[in-house]
Design a protein that fits this description.
Blueprint (H helix, E strand, L loop, with lengths): L8 E2 L10 H8 L2 H13 L5 E2 L9 H14 L2 E6 L2 E6 L1 H7 L3 H7 L9 H16 L1
Antiparallel strand pairs: 1-3, 2-4, 3-4
Helix pairs in contact: 1-3, 2-3, 2-5
Pfam families: HTH_20 (PF12840)
InterPro entries: ArsR-like_HTH, HTH_ArsR_DNA-bd_dom, WH-like_DNA-bd_sf, WH_DNA-bd_sf
Organism: Curtobacterium pusillum
């Protein structure tokens, strides 16, 4: 039975068994993709967010490419609903296949230059609190 017309479309992604380390490491070798994954891990709390939410200061076409690379590596799951594309980290699947990898991404410090100006202030405040604590 076909999915209802208003159901979100699942975009293709590898199964857990199809995820391979070279592809995942290649996806994470770019600081923009690393920053996207980090933002989802830190601020999305495992939830689904629209791709525009990520706050990386790059053109939409560039971000679309980076989201696709992350999805094709198996790190993100994406759904298309109308004009909105939403993503979430495949946390359990990635942890099962590559234990500890997402912990390293979570601990990484995103360079402020990658973030939109309105989000940079929050990064500065968070970092100054860490220094004074």
């Amino acid at each position: 039975m076909p999915a209802p017309v208003d159901a979100p479309e699942h975009l293709p992604q590898p199964s857990v068994a199809e995820m391979d380390l070279p592809t995942v490491m290649d996806a994470l070798s770019d600081p923009i993709r690393l920053a996207i994954l980090h933002r989802y891990l830190v601020d999305a709390a495992g939830g689904v967010r629209s791709c525009g939410w990520v706050g990386i200061d790059r053109p939409k076409s560039t971000l679309t490419h980076h989201f696709r690379v992350l999805r094709e590596a198996g790190l993100l799951e994406q759904h298309q609903e109308g004009l909105t594309r939403s993503s979430r980290v495949r946390f359990d699947e990635v942890q099962q296949r590559f234990p500890g990898l997402l912990d390293l991404v979570f601990a990484w410090e995103v360079p402020a230059a990658l973030m939109r100006a309105d989000l940079r202030e929050g990064l500065r405040e968070d970092r100054s609190e860490d220094v004074t604590a």
